[in-house]
Structures are given as C-alpha cells and as structure tokens.
Amino acid sequence: MKPIGLVLLFFVFTLIGNAQLPQESFDAGLIKYKAGDYSAAISEFTNAILSDAKFVQAYRYRGLSKMKLKDYSNALADFEKLVELDSGQSLGYFNRANAKMHLGDNPGALADVSKSIELKSDFAEAHLLRANLLVGVENFTEALTDFNKTIELGVTTAETYSGRAWAKHNLRDFEGSVVDLDKAIELDEKNAEYYFMRGLSQAELRAFSEAVRNFTTAIEINPAVAKYHIYCGMTRTELRDFEGSIVDYSNALIIDSTNYEVYKRRALSKLRLRELEGALADLNIAVEIAPGVADNYFSRGMVRSENRQYAEAIADYNKAILMDSTVAYFYFHRGMSKYFTDDILGAMDDFSKTILLNAKYAKAFEYKGLCEIKLGKKEDACADFKKAETLGDKDATLQVKKYCF
What we know:
By secondary structure, the chain is mostly helical. It is built from 24 helices and no strands. The radius of gyration is 33 Å and the shape is elongated.
C-alpha cells in the first residue's frame, strides 16, 4: 500500500507542475495575438479565463481577437463581461462600443463611447469613434467638435482629416473641407475617396475645372466606382462639356447598367447636343427601369417636345402629373406643348396651375399672358406680363412694349 500511495502523490504533483497559471496562458495568448494568430490566441485567453473567471484583460483580448475574426457577437459578450468586472475602465466601454457599431447598434455604441470619454476625456480614439458615429446620424456639428478634439490630442491621420472634411462639407464650410482633404491626400495620396470628396467640395465652390481634375484622379486610382464617373459627368455639364459628360455617364453605366438616373442624365446631355433620338432611347430605358418615377416621364416629355412630338410629350407629362401633382414645372411644360398645338384654353389652365404651385414662376405669367392675348383679354395679359417682368423675365418686357402701350 505504501508504494501505491507514493505513486499517486507523485502523479498529483506532476499534474500541478504541468498546469499553466492564468498569467502564463494570457502571456502566451498575447504573443499569438500580436503575431496575428487570433484563433490560437482565443484558445490561450480561454484557458486563462477557465483558470481565473475574473481575469479582466483576458476577456478584453479574447474579445479583440474575436473582433479581428469578425465574430462581433461573441466579442460583444466578452466586452460585456469586461465592463461587468471593471465598470470604471474607459477601454471596456470603448471596446464594447466598437462591437456594437459593427453589429449595427449605433445608439448603443454612441452611449458606450460617450461613457468611455466621460471616464477618460483625453482618449483620442474614443473621440474619433464618436465623431464617426455622429456623422452616421448626420449630427455634423457635434461630430466636428470630436474631430477637432481628436486632432488636438495628436491623432493627425488621413482618416481624421477626411472625416473632419466631410463634417465641414455638410456644414457648408467647403473651403475648410478642401483644406482638410489637402492634408488627407498629403498623408495618403493613393486614396481615391479623398480626391472624390475634394471634388465634391470644389464643385460646391463652383471650381468646376478643379473638381473635374479631382474626380478624374479618383477614376484613375479606382475606375470601378460608378459614382466617380457620375459626378465627373455632372460637373462637366456645368462646364458645358456635354460630349465629355456623355463619356463619363457611359462609363458609369458599364459598371452599373440599372441606374436610371444615369440614363436620364446622359439623355439630357444628348438633348443639349440635339442628339434627340439618342436622348429618347436613353429615357425609354430609364422609364423601363423605373416606371414609377414621375421625373422619367417628364424628361422624356421634354425630349419629345423638342422633337415637336407634342402629342406624345403631353402624354408623358400627363403620366408625370398623375404620379406627382405638386411639381409646378410639370404643368408649365405641358402648358407649353398645348400652346404649340393651339390648345390655348388647356395651356392657360396649365400656366395658372403652375402659378398656384409657384407664384414666382415668371415664364408661367408670360405665357399665360400670351394665351390671354390670343383670347382677346389684353388687360389681363398686360397684368401678367408686368408680373413676369417684376420677377425678372426679360422677354416679358418685350411683351409689355408690344401689347401694353
């Protein structure tokens, strides 16, 4: 019996000797975490937690490892435990905020990151996270405050400057936005999105040539993004470069052939170049893709009107008005097609409806007056011409001279 007892005692001591302490498991996990072996790191951190269920840092790093593997739900569970064990630690709320953000719980993330900042007001990364969350809910004023604080605390990355630029852009500080994007591009000159954003702010400043150059650079860096081509095309139209805009819209449609807005914009550029058949073909596609969009019918009506297809144009305007009866220029353009087909009463009715919806629509007053001239209502016509004149319609001045003296 005595030898057996000694063997058992030796076996127990061997087990104890081979067992890793929680700190040893944690240290091993940290080495694997830093080496990017996150699955193995999770295993080591789990061993540490099994040995010590209150090992705060093990929960934190196991959660961070799961975040790296995009296992956000289980990472959140670890961060929940971390906050439970140490509710006074700023990092716990920050980590939990990150997990919640990735899971789409932005209100929860915002509450947690605010708590993190409350506990540690000079936590730059927390200010940056809150700034980005505030941008997500379009609270650009408070987001700008956090971006400023982040930079003040020394985080002067391209991401920080570009984030602040976007807040400034949405607060209509376009010059400030350009300045910040200059810095972002200086730090990361291969990021297409920064050039795109700078182009947006320059376009708002009506610096259209500079905007086109930035959109073009974005396209050169990443030609597979449709919006870069679209905004480049839109800005070229401001420069009356309709041929160039058509090329941009065509490139956008190669990337996404289901965007009816791009067909419509390409059609309007073709209309400016009097390519009426091509414009009509594009608008037919736009209507086919989005038959429930009133503006598609209106735009096709404009092209048909330019092509003197007034009956077809009126049919399109009718559809647009049936879908949305609150748009003044729908009625005005239908009135114009009726005017050119000598439906004077119908035209005058449409011009009157235009004025009801927009009392500053000068051309509607002018053409209502022309209808009244045709109907022998000179006094009413002159009143409308003079109203149009006061609203800035220079053609109305000619009508006053012609009919009202």
